Amino acid sequence: MLASILHADLDAFYASVEQRDNPRLRGRPVIVGGGVVLACSYEAKARGVRTAMGGREARRRCPDAVVVQPRMGAYSAASKAVFQVFRDTTPFVEGISIDEAFLDVGGLRKISGTPTEIAVRLRHEVRRRVGLPITVGVAKTKFLAKVASGVAKPDGLLVVPPGGELAFLHPLPVERLWGVGPVTAGKLRERGLRTVGAVARIGEAALVSMLGVAAGRHLHALAHNHDPRAVQTGRRRGSIGSQRALGRRHRTPRELDAVLCGLVDRVTRRMRGANRVGRTVMLRLRFDDFSRVARSHTLPRATANTRTILEALRGLLAVALPMIEERGVTLVGVAVGNLDDTRAVQLMLPFDRDSGAELDGALDAVRDRFGSAAVTRAVLLGRDPGLSMPMLPD
Fold first, then answer.
1. Residues comprising the binding site?
2. What pLDDT, on the 0 to 100 scale, is given for residue 179?
3. In sequence order, what are the beta bridge partners of 252?
4. Annotation says 165 is catalytic
5. Domains of the chain, earliest start first
6. Bind-site residues for Mg(2+)
7. Partners of 30 in the β-ladder
8. Which value, to the nearest 10 degrees, does the dihedral of the CA atoms of residues 383, 389, 392, 394 take?
9. 154: cis peptide before it, omega within 30°?
10. Nearest Cα to 142, choosing from 226, 204, 216, 215?
11. Which residue from 55, 64, 132, 394 has the least number of CB within 10 angstroms?
12. What are the residue ranges in the chain where pLDDT is below 50?
């Protein structure tokens, strides 16, 4: 069996788009976002700058960095162009974020060449057609292809040959295992488990007792490169969301409500543009100590109505305010899940038209024609619109 799964991952995506569009930024440390680092170039990463770092700390570490404000429209357009290259390469594309995807090229040998040849051509086409660097990992499993691309960054290509998977995987640090963050890595390292090979050798039962059933079984499987998942195509997103980084300045409840309004406007507009409705609203918060919390509420029926979703999220935010006051908040995110097509929603008797839907549609039309800033809420006047994290394009 050939190593026929590709993991293609754009390098420092937002910063690379800025360097592509402004030649004066090429080769220089670039930080996207001022209050909190939304993204940074590899030149800035080499100086210790990291995503989600406070802007003041980032500028202290790299005082000569060029700070630019995010241009979400440019990033979305670049993502769509790259995904078109993916789809021109193979019909089997599974997008997992705005800047990365899995591709299955196993059935293309006779018409397109070996997976390695396809990966080489893919990287060339992304550079030629979109002007961006991309790293590709090639392996027999999705997990290992993703690990390979991570090892090959930036702007690289790494093929894990069949039969050599464990020889490649086991010397790597435990952080390379999918799902191992700082907390889990700390638990493993406290017990002397520093490499993937060490995790593989201790056995599933020991991992389960250490990390719990789900995490233990998951890491045991990955440490042995057991990943039966196929590349899934045609799957529509399960949720639509947006988030804003806030920095470390104290935010009043009124300021947080303004942030929430802007995020909900953005999310519900995307939902209506995609003809989707949802039942579950989700609020995500990140605190000063980098811990996170998520809260959700399920509505009586699916909707894309801005007012309905906003009121539900305001309720979740009100419950979370004591935690925010105690711990500070550096990021607010909202999402709507349990999505369905608009046509699948059963109308409510007596079939009156929803005046809220008419207003939402009118506002969408104005913004589509004259730009997203053409009409705004009074609470957002004079405020920074913030850093929206776009979801994978349809």
1. 9, 99
2. 79
3. none
4. no
5. 1-161 (3.30.70.270), 170-223 (1.10.150.20), 239-380 (3.30.1490.100)
6. 9, 99
7. 66
8. 0
9. yes
10. 226
11. 64
12. 349, 351-353, 385-394
